[in-house]
């Protein structure tokens, strides 16, 4: 009797599906089962598709692709429809793909199913429950794995997956290191159980090694099957008491990066649907592990760059406390162009540098490293602050714009090559508190005085480094009084979170005023400044302005030890400012500084009077002399009974005199204002010019005055 006759007798038909041509060949019994005349026939794929329920046909594509990839049988249950769309019978299809390169043929059988086996309805494509639960599970699993940011998180997510209808109680992820199999992580096993499987040669007769070598999944439904196929590895697996195992390749971009083992405490038949779910999870797991590996490599590179390029602060400066912070932006490699540095100088002096190279990428970080080294070299040669910045500007211009002609050509031809940097360089003498500051387009320093007053100290400056090769950077000398704290920062601290320089400074100023050196050290102030911008230093914890890392942030704090007990004191408040003939706009800065100096003065009218007289005195110097004006303002005494003394000095010997301005005159009222508004005033001749001064008393003029 022929085989065809035997199959027909048991209501089983044969079919052959050629993937290349799209032709499906049916024998007589297969044709009958599909509702066609009982005779051999060849049909197109579209004609065959019309005979099956559309939902079931959609399942075939995934099942066939899975069988082709794994070299296993393709099994499915299919409902046959008549011309009116009614289900006339249910067939079970079993076929094996014959692969020849990219072409394959599917050869198998069709058999009518009288009724489903008990307990299998939820796992067959005939019902929608299994399919819906599977799709929901895969969506949740994909979302959870996509959000995992490290290998440890990926493994935790994989261990918590609850697959529809079957869930493994033991998982292991294997990686490849050279010619050996390694354990990346495991779940459902005790510590130390991974020992025999770690550092296993790839030619070992073990399922995971076999999967890595071949790139094909291995399903072991029973212990007997495991023992028969892998007798050497069976003693290692037997002690865990599992009943079924699935080993699947972890493939990314065509490369097998490892294997995933799912072990079950009960027997699993590994139906096509179950294999499909496991294969899909394996693909998602491989992609999640690849993303985590890239992210961890970037984090390691980022931390390495930061450790290399951002030095720790050097030895302690006698009589001073120093604190610093660097926070990179949230994107990319977490590195950028901001930096700070501390340089030891001869004679007990120290230099502090803070700067910002344009950009937040690796190139900016590289330029920052080169510029930092150059600054240290110039400082070590003994140059003054202005010479250090001049040489640094020429150096940066030479390695960016200078290599492409002039600066204009560089920006036109290679925009990425021409970059600049802002920088502030200062030298400090710890014994006297003297600061010599040179500034290249950088935000001005601020001083928190011992009594809590905050002033932005105006310092002369020049263009950012690297724009013009030969640029002058004038030096400004300030004095850091005992108990004062100097703040240096990059613009990221001020302009992050939708702020501009002005509103950002108001935010920082409030934090400085709230700082109490009696109960807090300088590290607390550094942390509070950074936290105010983007919250605590964690990617997972939100803060007041959660993770607004729009720009790199560098902060440097320098505090001079207080002469007396720590805490708020009442030493003299002093500010010094030079207004050059070429910078009349700095008169507005002088008015602002005086108001900041008198921020808690009891009489607001006196503050207005002082600002008016300062404006008049400085303007007179710029209008009636050829030199610059030097403003010195000092407030002394206890609050409520303080004395304000303001001096404006110039190099002219011509003394002011009383004038009688007409009603429409625009000048000539300076002396009259002094007589009307000041409690005391005068003119002191000097060898190199004169000094005009006035005094105001917070509680009113004393009787002796």
TrEMBL record:
Catalytic activity: O-phospho-L-seryl-[protein] + H2O = L-seryl-[protein] + phosphate
Signal peptide residues on this chain, from the entry's feature table: none
Molecular function as annotated in GO: ATP binding; kinase activity; metal ion binding; protein serine/threonine phosphatase activity
Record domain PPM-type phosphatase: where: 317-560
Gene3D superfamilies assigned to the protein according to its UniProt record, in alphabetical order: 3.30.450.40, Histidine kinase-like ATPase, C-terminal domain, PAS domain, PPM-type phosphatase domain
CDD domains: HATPase_RsbW-like, PAS
Enzyme Commission designation: 3.1.3.16
Task of the protein: Primarily acts as an independent SigF regulator that is sensitive to the osmosensory signal, mediating the cross talk of PknD with the SigF regulon. Possesses both phosphatase and kinase activities. The kinase domain functions as a classic anti-sigma factor-like kinase to phosphorylate the anti-anti-sigma factor domain at the canonical regulatory site, and the phosphatase domain antagonizes this activity.
UniProt name for this protein: protein-serine/threonine phosphatase
Organism of this sequence: Streptomyces kanasensis
């Amino acid at each position: 009797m022929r085989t065809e006759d035997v199959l027909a007798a048991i209501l089983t038909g044969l079919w052959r599906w050629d993937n290349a041509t799209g032709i499906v060949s049916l024998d007589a019994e297969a044709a009958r089962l599909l509702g066609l005349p009982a005779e051999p026939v060849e049909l197109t794929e579209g004609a065959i598709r019309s005979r099956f329920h559309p939902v079931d046909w959609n399942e075939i594509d995934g099942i066939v692709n899975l069988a082709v990839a794994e070299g296993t049988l393709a099994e499915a249950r299919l409902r046959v429809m008549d011309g009116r769309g009614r289900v006339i019978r249910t067939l079970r299809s079993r076929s094996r793909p014959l692969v020849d390169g990219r072409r394959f043929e599917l050869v198998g059988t069709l058999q009518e199913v009288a009724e489903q086996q008990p307990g299998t309805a939820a796992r067959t494509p005939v019902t929608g429950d299994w399919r819906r639960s599977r799709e929901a599970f895969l969506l949740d699993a994909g979302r959870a794995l996509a959000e995992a940011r490290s290998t440890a998180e990926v493994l935790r997510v994989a261990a918590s997956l609850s697959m529809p209808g079957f869930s493994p109680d033991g998982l292991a992820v294997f990686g490849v290191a050279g010619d050996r199999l390694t354990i990346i992580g495991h779940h459902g096993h005790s510590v130390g159980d991974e020992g025999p499987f770690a550092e296993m040669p790839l030619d070992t007769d073990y399922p995971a090694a076999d999967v890595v070598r071949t790139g094909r999944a291995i399903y072991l439904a029973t212990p007997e099957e495991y023992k028969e196929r892998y007798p050497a590895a069976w003693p290692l697996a037997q002690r865990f008491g599992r009943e079924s195992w699935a080993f699947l390749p972890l493939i990314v971009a065509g490369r097998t990066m490892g294997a995933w083992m799912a072990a079950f405490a009960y027997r699993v038949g590994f139906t096509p649907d179950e294999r499909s779910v496991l294969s899909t999870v394996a693909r998602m797991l491989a992609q999640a592990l690849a993303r985590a590996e890239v992210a961890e490599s970037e984090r390691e590179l980022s931390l390495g760059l930061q450790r290399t390029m951002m030095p720790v602060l050097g030895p302690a400066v006698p009589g001073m406390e120093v604190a610093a912070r660097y926070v990179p932006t949230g994107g990319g490699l977490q590195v950028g162009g901001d930096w700070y540095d501390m340089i030891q100088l001869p004679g007990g002096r120290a230099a502090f540098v803070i700067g910002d190279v344009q950009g937040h990428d690796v190139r900016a970080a590289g330029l920052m490293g080169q510029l930092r080294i150059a600054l240290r070299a110039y400082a070590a040669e003994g140059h003054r602050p202005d010479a250090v910045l001049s040489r640094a500007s020429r150096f940066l211009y030479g390695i960016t714009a200078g290599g492409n002609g002039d600066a204009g050509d560089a920006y036109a031809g290679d925009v990425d090559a021409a970059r600049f940097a802002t920088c502030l360089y200062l030298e400090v003498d710890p014994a006297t508190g003297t600061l010599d500051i040179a500034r290249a387009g950088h935000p001005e320093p601020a001083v928190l005085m011992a009594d809590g007053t905050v002033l932005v100290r105006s310092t002369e400056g020049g263009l950012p480094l690297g724009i013009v090769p030969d640029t002058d950077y004038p030096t400004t000398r300030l004095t850091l009084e005992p108990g004062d704290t100097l703040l240096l920062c990059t613009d990221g601290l001020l302009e992050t979170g939708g702020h501009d320089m002005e509103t950002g400074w108001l935010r920082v100023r409030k934090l400085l005023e709230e700082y109490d050196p009696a109960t807090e050290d300088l590290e607390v102030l550094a942390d509070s400044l950074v936290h105010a911008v983007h919250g605590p230093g964690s990617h997972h914890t939100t803060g007041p302005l959660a993770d607004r890392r729009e720009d790199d942030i560098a902060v440097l704090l320098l505090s001079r030890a207080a002469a007396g007990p720590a805490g708020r004191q009442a030493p003299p408040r002093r500010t010094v400012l030079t207004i050059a003939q070429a910078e009349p706009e700095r008169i507005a800065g002088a008015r602002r500084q005086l108001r900041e100096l008198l921020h808690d003065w009891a009489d607001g009218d006196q503050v207005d009077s002082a600002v008016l007289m300062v404006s008049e005195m400085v303007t007179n110097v710029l209008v009636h002399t050829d030199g610059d004006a030097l403003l010195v303002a000092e407030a002394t005494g206890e609050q409520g009974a303080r004395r304000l003394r303001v001096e404006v000095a110039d190099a002219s010997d011509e003394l002011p005199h009383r004038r009688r301005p007409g009603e429409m005159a625009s000048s000539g009222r300076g002396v009259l204002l002094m007589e009307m508004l000041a409690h005391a005033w005068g003119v002191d001749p000097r060898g190199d010019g004169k000094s005009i001064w006035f005094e105001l008393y917070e509680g009113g003029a004393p009787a002796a005055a």
